[in-house]
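User:
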Amino acid sequence: MQKKPHPADIADRAKIATAIRFNVHLRKGPADKINREAPTLAKAAEIAARISAENGGKPCLIYGITPDKMTVLVPKDMIDAARSGTAPAKRQAEKAKRKPKADKSAGGKRCDPRSCAERQDARRP
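Assistant: Predicted structure:
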């Protein structure tokens, strides 16, 4: 059974779907790092695979950069999906944009003040 995703993860996936570019990052040492830009997640996944192969198989991080310059770490399952050609980010963004369910009124003994006052008046002799 698959775990229910956390609301913050769903929001991050929606932000990734709006990304205008992607950054591939690999830290080789304290001062040595590799950064490459890519226009799409599929291209970023290709670049990450190439950089990883050149550096002993160490995995790269991929960040999505949104139009408002916010960076979001791309989860591994989205990178794998981009390599295989499917696009779950758009589906996740559509789910995030859907209208949330209407809030239910409080149940149990709670009620609005007027109806409570009316009931109390009815109980009094």
